[in-house]
Structures are given as structure tokens and as C-alpha cells.
Amino acid sequence: IASGTVPTFKLNDGRDMPGFGLGTSLGLKKDNNRDLKKNEIENAVKWAIDAGYKHIDTAFVYDTEDKVGSAINKKVAEGVVKREDLFVTTKLWNDAHARDAVVPTLRKSLENLNLDYVDLYLIHWPIAQYRNGTFYDVDYLETWEGMIEAKKLGLAKSIGVSNFNQQMLERLISKSSVKPAVLQVEINLNVQQPELREYCRQQNIVVTAYTPFGSIFPNKARSDAPPPRVDDPTLVQIANKYNKTVPQIVLRYLVELNVIPIPKTVTKSRVEQNIDIFDFELTREEKDLFRGYDKNYRTIDYKAAIDSPYYPFEKN
Ligand code: NDP
């Protein structure tokens, strides 16, 4: 596996972040198979570490922190990897945005993970919202003060935000003493975010690409989702040329956009396949083709929060 050549990103706080990671979200719907699925996450994280992944993405609200942590602790105990060589991200959920709630909530995440610190703590959404769906009034600037405290305490080595738009980032940067190190947003073929990426480049904020496959898999695509799908003949042809799969060339394109993809899979062969993208490069023509799929179409639009004053996306 060519994972030895995964690039490292230098964060604006001086720390390093591995340029490829494993996602661990099972979706937010609770179902009867939850326990089984959670065990799959533990296996996936173990396979990932065996395959050379150094970066794992989780969140309090995913309810997978315990499995992510037990996989990591087992691999560290086995001597496969050292804790300090791993990069673990978790996120603060919307129901804990009060400044004084941030550190205690991170401590709960650390307890779930059974770790002393996370490498990156993110505000999951700019939106303050209770679990029952009701919005409450806390400005994310206040939440950010709690994040700064978490960093000062060493509980989070770096801090950042997720699902913030450019205006929100500008406001955060102009009104606070610490700049976010990372922005995590949806980036895939259908929503490539060229302006937001350029803004982050100028501000020296590293961008993580969540839901990197977007709508390429028919079982996940809504009926209104733009093309392409994974069986698109042109994409299959390009993939064949490199002896790769369509998911691999899609991830490779994201790498060439200088963002950090965090694909989720609980399938061992896919865990290994997804990181095996650091031994080839797409041509300019191929990248032009990929760019053409950008329709500013979101797979995750979180319309349920559209009435929040802090809803970050287009409202139509
Ligand atoms: P992804 O784009 O990573 O797609 C995951 C799906 O793709 C799964 O169904 C998986 O199947 C399938 N898959 C993965 N690799 C392959 C492959 N090589 N071939 C075929 N199918 C494949 O979606 P996510 O929404 O999970 O996004 C990734 C991560 O980003 C999340 O897990 C989470 O960590 C983060 N995220 C963050 C958000 C935020 O608000 N900050 C929002 C959404 C996601 P299977 O598992 O069955 O193999």
C-alpha cells in the first residue's frame, strides 16, 4: 500500500495533520442494528491503522467515540502505532454551545474515547440546537471561547470548525484571538467549493472534505442528485487507465484540490483501497472534466436547521 506517501498538512498553529483519514459516522438515525454497526466501526478503525491510516474522524453525536477509542487503544497496546503518531478528531454537538459547556463536553468525549487528548476538536455546526430540535440562542463566537479554553488545557491540540460559511469564518477570525486551524465541510464532485477553498488557502486554514463520495453511489443518491454515478463510462475508463477504481480516482481528485478526504467505510477491502491513491496523478484534462461536475449540490444540506439564525447554507 502506498500509504507511506500520504502528505502532511502544516496547520496554522504549527502542528501537523495527515492528509487522509477514515470517517466513522453511521448516520444519525438510531436503529436496531446499532450495536452491530458500532462493532463494525471498531473493526474498520483497526483495519485502517493496519493499512497505514494515521487520521480518524469521529464526533460526539456519532455515538462511535467508544469504538474508535477502543480500536486505537488496542492498536497502540499491540505496538502497531504510537498514540502520538495518530491524529484523532472529534466534534462538539449543537446542544453544548454555551461557553461553559465546551470543556466538560470534550471531557465526556475523551472519556468515551478513553484518550487523554484529541488532536483536533471541531464545532460540528454553527447552530445551537437542543436534541429535540429546538434552537437556542448562543452565538458561535461564545462557543469558540470555550474551544480556546479546551486548547489551553491541552485537551485538544488544535481547534477548528465545521459547516461554517465564509462570512462566519470572517466574523470568527476578526472577533477572536485564535484562528481556526481547520474547516471541515462537504466537498465532493457535486460541491467543490472553489471560493471557500481559496479563502481558506489565503487564511492558512486547512480544509477537510467530508462525504467525499457525495452522490456517486446509487443507493445513497437522492433522485435529484446530479451525475456522475460510479458506473459512469468515462470515469470507468479513466479509472481503468490507472488500474484504479472510480472511488479511488474521485478521492485522488480531492487530494489534488489540496483538501483532506475522510471517506467512511466498514468494508476491509475498501478501507485498504481508499488510501491507495498516492501513487498516481490525474491529467489536466481529467481534472477539467471532474471540475465540470460541480453543481454546488449538497448531499448534506441539514434543512432541518434552516430556521436557525446560524444556518450556514443557501436556503433555497
Ligand atoms: P462517504 O462519502 O465517506 O461515503 C460512505 C459510503 O461509501 C458508505 O456507504 C461506504 O460503504 C461507501 N464506500 C466507501 N468506500 C467505498 C468504495 N471504495 N467503494 C464503494 N463504496 C464505498 O460518506 P460520509 O457521509 O460517511 O462521510 C465521510 C465522513 O465524513 C463521515 O463518516 C464523518 O466522519 C464525516 N462527516 C462529517 C460531517 C460534518 O458535519 N462535519 C457530515 C458528514 C460526514 P461501506 O461502509 O458499507 O463500505
Note down, in words, how this protein is organized.
- The chain is α/β, with parallel strands linked by helices and 316 residues long.
- It has one domain: NADP-dependent oxidoreductase domain (TIM Barrel, Alpha-Beta Barrel).
- It is built from ten helices and ten strands.
- The protein has helices at residues 34-50, 65-77, 99-113, 140-152, 166-175, 194-203, 233-241, 246-256, 268-275, 284-291, and strands at 8-10, 16-18, 22-23, 55-57, 87-92, 118-123, 156-162, 182-186, 206-210, 260-261.
- Helix 1 (34-50) runs parallel beside helix 2 (65-77), helix 2 (65-77) packs across helix 3 and helix 3 (99-113) packs across helix 4 (140-152).
- It starts with 7 loop residues before the first strand and ends in a 25-residue tail after the last helix.
- The mean pLDDT is 96.
- The chain binds NADPH dihydro-nicotinamide-adenine-dinucleotide phosphate.
- NADPH dihydro-nicotinamide-adenine-dinucleotide phosphate binds at residues 23-25, 57, 124, 162-163, 184, 210-213, 217, 247, 262-267, 270, 273-274, 300.
